[in-house]
Amino acid sequence: xxxxxxxxxxSPATVSRVLNGxxxxxxxxxxxxxEAVEELSYRPNRLAQNLRRQRTATIGVVVSDIENxxxxxxxxxxxxxxxxxxxxxxxxxxxxxxxxxRAYLQTLVEERVVGVVLTTSDPVxxxxxxxxxxxxxLVAFDREVADARADAVIAENVGAARSAVELLVGxxxxxxxxxxxxxxxxxxxxxxxxxxxxxxxxxxxPEVVEGRFRTDSARAAVAQLxxxxxxxxxxxxxxxxxxxxxxxxxxxxGITVPHHLALVAFDDPSWAALVDPPxxxxxxxxxxxxxxxxxxxxxxxxxxxxxxxxxxxxxVLRKRTSCGTx
Amino acid sequence: xxxxxxxxxxSPATVSRVLNGxxxxxxxxxxxxxEAVEELSYRPNRLAQNLRRQRTATIGVVVSDIENxxxxxxxxxxxxxxxxxxxxxxxxxxxxxxxxxRAYLQTLVEERVVGVVLTTSDPVxxxxxxxxxxxxxLVAFDREVADARADAVIAENVGAARSAVELLVGxxxxxxxxxxxxxxxxxxxxxxxxxxxxxxxxxxxPEVVEGRFRTDSARAAVAQLxxxxxxxxxxxxxxxxxxxxxxxxxxxxGITVPHHLALVAFDDPSWAALVDPPxxxxxxxxxxxxxxxxxxxxxxxxxxxxxxxxxxxxxVLRKRTSCGTx
DNA sequence: CTGAAAGCGCTTACAG
DNA sequence: CTGAAAGCGCTTACAG
Lengths: 326, 326
Known about the structure:
Two copies of one chain form a homodimer.
Chain A: H1 2-8, H2 12-20, H3 27-40, H4 46-53, E1 58-63, H5 69-84, E2 88-93, H6 98-110, E3 115-118, H7 126-133, E4 138-141, E5 151-155, H8 157-170, E6 176-180, H9 186-201, E7 207-210, H10 215-227, E8 234-237, H11 240-252, E9 262-266, E10 280-283, H12 286-302, E11 310-313, E12 316-318
Helix pairs in contact in A: 1-2, 1-3, 2-3, 5-12, 6-7, 8-9, 10-11
The structure holds a DNA duplex (16 and 16 nucleotides).
């Protein structure tokens, strides 16, 4: 930068001003600086800028596991929007571990990111407030956080679970079981709640097995369920990973879907229409939600909005064959 | 840091030395510094460190699209290793666009990352050499780059395609078609080559349709193929996204696998065993390869190795039902 | 072993 | 509108 200034016979301050648009600069000066920049093919040192500004043009996105297609879709949408805005994205996987989340959020404050999109593994983590305290905006994705200053983009889990129950009840089912995700995760708890509420509303007895949001756990749980002599006639599965397990267990047990067992699954991964039979799913508008999360974040970063905002998004029920009705 | 120095009655240099382990420090000094750090709960400013050291503790990983489960698995493995090493990871999606790759690689040099894992969308891109020129190590993943200074972790695509052909020929097939990925992408070209070579070795005529590594393209191409009156009896599909499309087209056409059409697919996504019939696949050891890529990178970063290294990894053929044999 | 000092490369009040 | 100067918070030769 000193070289540029010398070559253009101006001060470094002027170079900085034309490059950053701060303050007005005489046309002749501007031209000279731009020429010098060109001739020397000068590129500002980002690290020095970062230090001076005490922030980096980076967005942190923290999820439990980017291998879950739900999150890879989310991260991709975030990256798209960030790229267009000139921001970079740092990915952080927590594996649902509060410790890992703590470590990563701390890293993000040290890194002085401009904003964070978080699917929390610990809604009350102090580091969330620390970020907010330091003026780093945060939007909660899928799962709320305790700190009221955060924005949030949430899916309507209760309603979605209810609509699955309605569909199956409408198809004549009474024994509808639910493969639940972890109850200590908001999404898991809400989907379970919606299921139980809807079942009770119909005077039916909820029947819950624990799949912990994992393929193997769900497989084991469903295998056990299928081994019962008087087993359920319908199954609702709480996310795509568990659906993989449920499908495997059902297949192992030689049970035919939807003839012997009707199935409705949360999430709508790319393969949902290709298994046999095609899966009826509750699709969360992940891409739209992630894009919205970024818009909320960008509003905060630019200072266009200071009041917290929270948006809730309905699922869409994609009726295919596995539910056996309609 | 000045505060810490004052409180411990030492110089900032000493504080830096105890915190970074550079040079030896008297035990008494060390204790005083550590106490002061504790009392003030001091955390070094990463941005200042970055500027001073002219690098950031960040690894850049650039792939075509993290939504492809192949790459989300790869990125996850990279992140795991990076996290354990205290590095952060910046994800970059190029969508197979040389321009986007150029932009991102430039960003990564500006960001002064310590290393890059790259699945290139432009093997001869000048930015690759620029990174290497500046001493930033780069390992090519899946696809080689032109610059010989880079390390590389590659899969044995030719051999894998050949083994698929062998399997099908062994099952009595003669008309074996191939749904190819983009030929301008190394993986695509190699898989195609392997297929053609193996076919010719058996005196069979290759029959290639273009799927461009995309679900929709593959679907259209396979639909057309299935509409032929004298259609192939076996199909090899060049990656998981195209398999999704091929499966859909086959299903649309009312064709039964493997009875009317035998199928072998590259990649082994989570759902491969759950479609009907379970898919015979060529599984690339993605996780192992990604971990190895990180080891290579870390060796370079630490300076433990200066000679380029290139490792090649075989696929494993997972015989399930769709191939109709064995 | 320890400290004073320079310097990484910017940005931004502050004067003029 | 322009420039001189301070300062962001570290690290690391260089002396002692």
